Amino acid sequence: MPDPPDIVNISRNQTVNESDTVTLTCEAVANPPANITWTSVPNDRFVSFPLTISGKQDEGWYMCTAANSILEPAKKTAYVTVESESKIVSHLEF
Question: What is the DSSP string of 42-63?
Fold first, then answer.
């Protein structure tokens, strides 16, 4: 019997540093099997993992979409926080 997608497992929110790689996972049950895609929110850009974090622009919500030919797709999100590597600047006075 056909079943719409149901996301049963998704990565927790993660904190990473610039230049790290991150992999988010998403598992769904469905009949027929669901196709899993990831997009960044809000720009709706497709994302593949592992993703190399290049800076704060990679911080934000990532949406997992599980879709098959039955009803509406299932969607859940995970948040990636990017911590900048601190740059120390010193000023010497003579």
Answer: TTTEEE-SSEE--SGGG-EEEE
Q: How many CB atoms within 10 Å of residue 41? A: 12
Domain ranges of the chain: 3-81
Residue type, 42: P
Question: What CATH number does the domain located at 3-81 have?
Answer: 2.60.40.10
Nearest residue to 75 via CA among 14, 26, 18, 21: 26
Which residues, 6 or more positions from 67, have their beta carbon under 8 angstroms from its beta carbon?
5, 34, 35, 37, 73, 74
pLDDT tens digits, 1-41: 889 999 999 999 999 999 999 999 999 999 999 999 999 99
Q: What is the pTM of this model?
A: 0.85
Taking the C-alpha atoms of residue 51 and residue 47, their distance in angstroms, rounded to an integer, is: 8
Confidence of residue 74 (pLDDT cuts 50, 70, 90): very high
